From TrEMBL:
Residues 17-63 form the HTH cro/C1-type domain. It comes from [Mycobacterium] crassicus. It comes from the Bacteria. SMART domains: HTH_XRE. InterPro entries: Cro/C1-type_HTH, Lambda_DNA-bd_dom_sf. Pfam families: HTH_3. This is Helix-turn-helix transcriptional regulator. Residues 288-321 are annotated as: Disordered. SUPFAM superfamilies: lambda repressor-like DNA-binding domains.
Length: 321
């Protein structure tokens, strides 16, 4: 938030540009030099503020804000501008026929009628520009510092990955309310089904430090058991395996949600996702998986097995989230 200049600071910054000093300014305003000096802590009368804006060649609002700062009525720009309604207007980017970004700035007005005039002139001129197509502007109103951030929660995700052997924390998303089933003390562990070696651990919650600690403790416990995949080791999983695992997890979640249907606590399932999972679920559960993709299904086929085992771990014990 920008702090305001006092009137004396504003004067001292602009007088050199005008080739004047304080004595010259006092003479023009017909006040004493000592009066000018007192404006660092006092606010002059309205006529003097307007005259000073003219002499300094500065907008009246800027000088008035500095005077309010000197008088102790305001400290920042927000103290002066907060709550005021403005009208903003700009060229509509959709009207441009040029691939390059339109770098001409828009405009903000305190008077809505001036905004309308700006928009009208801009549209008429753009109609005559060959590469801009039809004229058009976008207009709207806004209240300075008047918008409240909607009620929300931020979910953080801590993750450990065997390649780096480090824990990172990032923002997982912003939600209107706490997602159902969110447990910051439960670490989700990803392990190779064949060996049980763990290659990824994650946790999600509303507090970044909590989810980081959850993952760190889980990794420490798994490391002590000797079940972590080393940084130089490969999962030997391809993209197809990851995709198949993801679809299988969706299918499992769908089956669990269906079993819980009718319960007030059961999560709602998106209708489109329901349709996709109804088709995907049975096919994944019953179809054999072709290892290597050979043409002869009788010699290169065996029942499909999820190559990744995903399970929750409660490293911090039973705690309230």
């Amino acid at each position: 938030m920008a702090a305001l200049d006092t009137l004396s600071e504003l004067i001292d910054r602009h007088l050199p540009e005008l080739g004047m000093n304080r004595e010259d300014l006092a003479r023009v305003l017909e006040v004493s030099p000592s009066t000018v000096s007192r404006w660092s802590t006092r606010m002059p009368g309205p006529e003097t503020v307007r005259a000073l804006a003219t002499v300094l060649d500065q907008p009246y609002g800027v000088v008035l804000a500095a005077a309010l700062r000197s008088g102790g009525y305001a400290a920042t720009t927000a103290d002066v501008l907060s709550g005021h309604r403005l009208t903003f207007v700009a060229r509509d980017p959709a009207c441009s026929q040029d691939d390059e970004d339109d770098d001409e700035p828009g405009a903000v007005f305190t008077d809505p009628e001036r905004a309308k005039q700006w928009a009208h002139v801009r549209e008429e001129l753009d109609l005559r520009i060959a590469d801009y197509g039809h004229g058009g502007t976008a207009t709207g109103s806004a209240v300075i510092d008047g918008a409240c951030t909607p009620a929300h929660v931020v979910v953080f995700r801590a993750a450990w990955e065997h390649r780096t052997d480090t824990v990172t924390v990032s923002e997982a998303g912003v939600f209107a309310e706490v997602p159902s089933g969110l447990d910051p003390h439960a670490a989700q562990v990803e392990a190779l089904s064949e060996t049980g070696r763990v290659f990824a651990v994650s946790a999600c919650g509303l507090d970044a430090d909590t989810v980081r600690q959850t993952v760190e403790v889980a990794v420490s416990q798994i490391r002590a058991d000797g079940n972590l995949l080393g940084t130089q080791e490969s999962t030997e999983l391809g993209l197809a395996e990851y995709l198949m695992h993801s679809q299988m997890m969706h299918a499992r979640a769908y089956r669990e949600a269906r079993r819980a249907e009718g319960s007030p606590a059961s999560p709602a399932i998106d209708p489109e996702m329901r349709k996709r999972l109804e088709k995907i679920g049975p096919r994944l559960l019953n179809a054999p998986y072709r290892w290597g993709g050979g043409a002869d299904s009788t010699t290169d086929a065996k029942p499909w097995r999820d190559p990744i085992t995903t399970y929750p771990m409660q490293p911090l014990g039973s705690q309230d989230s």
